[in-house]
TrEMBL record:
Organism: Elstera litoralis
Chief localization: membrane
Topology versus the membrane: Peripheral membrane protein
Protein name: ABC transporter ATP-binding protein
Domain ABC transporter: 106-350
Cellular compartments per GO CC: plasma membrane
Keyword Nucleotide-binding: yes
GO molecular function: ATP binding; ATP hydrolysis activity
Length: 371
């Protein structure tokens, strides 16, 4: 019985685990019950499929039948959500192209971070335009999360610069900024975390979680604060009447919406989203991504979207930076990088993505990068 054994793994590690389970199954003649919310993985590994919703079996049958002739609306919705994430988001298709000649809101040059002799980030340079979403993708240990934490000075980089251009045109180097400058910049550069359970204080109500940044920064108190919390909850698609509930009373997708509300509470200009949807099932993942893009259009946000899921990156991002072992190995427009990559590591990443079609099992045509 394998209960979500590949959840939150990067695609290359996930493919290796699937490969291992199939090999052990064949060698030992085992039966496997594989529990997952990832329909791509289902298409990759299953012979028979049982679809559940709210404790009930909605549909069951051979994997080919489930994917190519589903009988239940819920099954069709799950498969449709996977296929949706293989395309550009409709919101992005309707947007005018970003202007070429515009000063970046953030410009990173030669950023490096070393831990006990290990270069977690090695001479990384990138930029972020106003209103743009830059995806940073790579497998576990590639350094992508460390880049995000360096930008917010959770870690103090060992070298490089990160020039943040404020709304008034003044610039601050986030790498060398003093405490007062950092406090100001952290109001304008916020973070959404990977795990919506551990990132929310279980002892605080939702209202307290969302209100805390505004209280700490002296933005609002009393009725004004209550009104702001209610408005923020409405903005992220949550009922304001739920604000006195605690995080455990919400689903994973709702908890991540609470995290988004907290992130936008200070009217930021940049949000660093670190694996913000990796713990969510595919239908909820698409909803949260659509919400983030709607907020981007409404509030003029720029995103650095860190993920190991190159399918989500393609759906969400304008440009993509691919990292491997601390180095930036490829960067370009999302469509170009995801359909015609130039670096062999990016090609290996793409080849490891499970295809949502059991007739096209990618495990037999996967590339391995050994660089």
């Amino acid at each position: 019985i394998a209960d979500e054994p590949t959840t939150a793994l990067d695609v290359t590690t996930q493919a290796e685990i699937i490969d291992l389970i199939r090999r052990l199954q064949k060698d030992k003649g085992m039966a496997v019950m594989f529990i997952t919310h990832d329909m791509g993985v289902v298409a990759e590994i299953a012979d028979e499929v049982l679809v559940m919703y709210h404790g009930k079996v909605m549909e069951s049958g051979p994997v080919d039948q489930i994917f190519h002739a589903p009988q239940d609306d819920y099954t069709r919705m799950l498969i449709g959500s996977v296929l949706k994430l293989e395309q550009k988001a409709e919101i992005r298709l309707k947007r005018p192209p970003l202007p070429d000649k515009v000063l970046p809101v953030l410009e990173v040059s030669g950023l490096s971070m070393q831990f006990a002799g290990v270069k977690a980030v090695d001479n990384v340079s990138l930029f972020l335009k106003p209103g743009e979403t830059l995806g940073v993708v790579g497998e576990s240990g590639s350094g992508k999360t460390t880049v995000g934490r360096c930008l917010l000075r959770v870690y103090n980089p060992t070298a490089g610069s990160a020039i943040y251009r404020r709304a008034d045109g003044t610039t601050v180097d986030l790498v060398t900024a003093n405490r007062a400058q950092l406090k100001e910049c952290r109001r304008e550069i916020r973070m959404i975390f990977q795990d919506p359970i551990s990132s929310l204080n279980p002892r605080m109500t939702v209202a307290q979680v969302i209100a805390e940044p505004m209280l700490v920064n002296g933005i609002a108190t009393g009725k004004e604060l209550d009104d702001r919390v209610a408005h923020l909850m409405e903005q992220v698609g949550l009922n304001p009447d739920w604000r006195e509930r605690y995080p455990h009373a919400f689903s994973g997708g709702q908890r991540q919406r609470i995290g988004v509300a907290r992130a936008i509470s200070l009217n930021p200009r940049i949000i660093v989203a670190d694996e913000a949807t990796s713990a969510l099932d595919v239908s909820i993942r698409a909803q949260v991504l659509d919400l983030m893009m709607e907020l981007q259009d409404r509030l003029g946000l720029s995103y650095i979207f860190i993920s190991h899921d190159i399918g989500v990156i393609r759906y969400m991002c304008d440009r993509v930076a691919v990292m491997y072992r601390g180095k930036l190995v490829e960067m370009g427009p999302a469509e170009q990088v995801c359909t015609n990559p130039t670096h062999s590591y990016t090609q290996a990443l793409l080849s490891a993505i499970p295809r949502p079609d059991p007739r096209n099992r990618s495990i037999h045509q996967r590339m391995r990068y050994t660089g």
